[in-house]
C-alpha cells in the first residue's frame, strides 16, 4: 500500500469526526453511557450497596438505642444517613467513570475534541480549550488547571472560567437523583445536561468575546491516537481512583457538612430543640428562608432547597446529602424496583415540586459556580481578582437565568400559563443580562 493510501482509521474518522455527523454520534454515545450507568447496570449494583448501607444504619441505630435522642439523631440520621444517601450513588457514578475511561482509552475522546474545535474557534476560544473541558467531565479542578497550556491570556482565562460548566463527577449524584426521581431514570436528562453544558460554554465564550472586544484567532494541531480496543484494567484503575476520591470526600467534607446541617436544623436560635412539626423555627430555616425568596421565580423557593444549593458550593455532592437530611429521607433508592424511589417511593412527594421545577433546580446547581476548591483553582489560573469575581458572578447569573427560563418556559408549555413570581423574576433576569 502507498503511504498516502487511506486506512481503516481514516475511514472511521470520516464518520466519527465528521463535521456534521460527529455531534449526533457524540450525543448517542453519551446517551448510551447514561443509560448503562443510571438505568440498566448502575441500579442493580446500587441495590447490593444500598441494602448493605441500610443494614449498617439500622445496626448503628441499635447500638445507640440507649444514648440521648439528640445524639442518636445526629449520629444516625444526620451523619450516617446523610453520608450514606450520597454514597448510595457510588455504583452509578463508578459505572459512569468506567465507561468514560473506556471511551478515552479507545481514542474516541480525541475525536470529540476535533469535532468541537471548529465550533470553539467561531466563539473566540482556542482549539486547546477542548481538552480542559473534556477533563472537567471528571473533575473541574484539573480541567481548570489544564487551561494553563493556552498561550493567549484572554483565551486561557476564558477557558478556565467556562470549563466548570461541564458536568463533573461531583455533579453526577445530583443528575442521577433528579433524573431518577422525577423522570424515571431517563438517560435523556443526563445526556441533555452534557449537551447543554457545551451549548452554554459556546454562548458564554461568545458573550465574553464581545465584552472584551477580542478578534484574535487561534490554530489547533493535534495528533490523533490510533483507535484501539480499550484496556479493561486501565479503565478499572481509573474508576477505582475516582471512586476512592468520591468516598474520601463523602467521609470528610460531606460528613462535616451534613452534621452541621443537622445541628442547625435541630436547634432554634435560643438553642431549644425544634419539633418535627415546626422545622421552620430552626436556625437553618431562618438562614435559608430569606434567600429562598430569590428562588420563587425558579420554582423551588423553599428553605430546604436553598440550604442544599448553598452547601453545594462546598461540594456539589452536598446537595444530595443536605436534601436527605432536611427532608428526613433515609434512602433515595427503591430496592424492590431496583431504581431511584420516585413517586412510588415518596421522594417526589416529599420534595413537593413538579418535574419542571426539579429540572430547573438541577440546571441551577449544574451551572452556578463549582465547589470552593475549583473556585480556588480558577483564582490561580485567572491570576486576577477582577476576572475571578467576574467569573463567579457570570456563573451565578448564568445558572439563575437558565433555571428561570427552564421553569417559566416549561410551565408555559405544560400549563399554558407562567409560573409563580414571573414578573419579579423577569426583572431580575433583565438586570443580570444588563450587567
Number of helices: 21
Indicate the mean pLDDT. Answer: 89
Main sheet strand line-up:
1-2
Task: Give the N-to-C terminal Cα separation.
Answer: 61 Å
Radius of gyration over C-alpha positions, nearest whole angstrom: 22 Å
Instruction: Please provide the count of β strands.
Output: 2
Q: What does the largest sheet look like?
A: 2 strands, antiparallel
Q: Globular, elongated, flat, extended or rod-shaped: what is the shape?
A: globular
Poorly predicted runs are: none
Beta-strand residue percentage: under 5%
Topology pattern, helix = H, strand = E: HHHHHHHHHHHHHHHHEEHHHHH
Class by SSE composition: mainly alpha
Give the proportion of residues in helices. 55-70%
Describe this entry's structure for a reader.
This protein is mainly α and 435 residues long. 68% of the residues lie in helices and 1% in strands. The chain is built from 21 helices and 2 strands. A two-stranded antiparallel ribbon has the order 1-2. A hairpin with a 4-residue loop joins strand 1 and strand 2. The longest helix has 31 residues, at 385-415. The N and C termini lie far apart (61 Å).
